Amino acid sequence: MSAVTRGKIISQFHLLEEKARLLNIEPLQVYLIGGGNLALRGLKSATKDVDIVVLNRGQFSLLQNLLETPLPKLPVYVRQHRSQWDYNLGMSAGYMHPLYGFHLDVFVKRVLNKLYLSEGMVSRAEAPEEFGSHEWFKVLLVSKEDIFLFKSVTSLERVRDLEDLIALVETGLDYETIINELETQLSKDESLRSLVPRIIHRVDLLTKQIGTVKGLIHLREHLREISG
User: Fold this and answer.
1) Cβ–Cβ under 8 Å, residues 105 and 52
2) pLDDT at residue 28 tops 80
3) What pTM was estimated for this model as a whole?
């Protein structure tokens, strides 16, 4: 799988905006998490894939139509997989651009049966200036704090995942926002409490790598309190 650079993300998303305009679809709003978000922020040079979250099944259907409908000289993405269930939460699909190795993972509201794209996350998301003119394919980046939380529960112990978390910490994070968002998620889905030890483990790895960061220590203390 080819690395997806910041420039490639920007160019491909501009093409999807043009394609959405030509198809005259209803406005579509996507939220970037993971490496694609970090690449657009300039926090990493490239990513293996681009993770997108949409808010509901209707938006999922619009995006599916946009990706798969052929138009001359505009990208058609090949669906590689789709979740077996078909309802309005946690649906997912994976797509690949057959020419450019551009890989998209799409989720509806919930990512990998873990965290939800909450109202708070939506309110904190911002449109990068590169896509400020988009009207049909609107791109928003969830906040650095929310990316930190997503990566803390979905990373696979890979070196690059830890590097991503370190890059986020070094930008300066609002750890109260992270704590409040986690509490919001737990209040709506008690099953997510099983993720707390995983987040503690990530925070421990981070402190070993970069030393004492006051906000990280505060976060770890809170996590240990709620883990019982």
Assistant:
1) yes
2) yes
3) 0.95
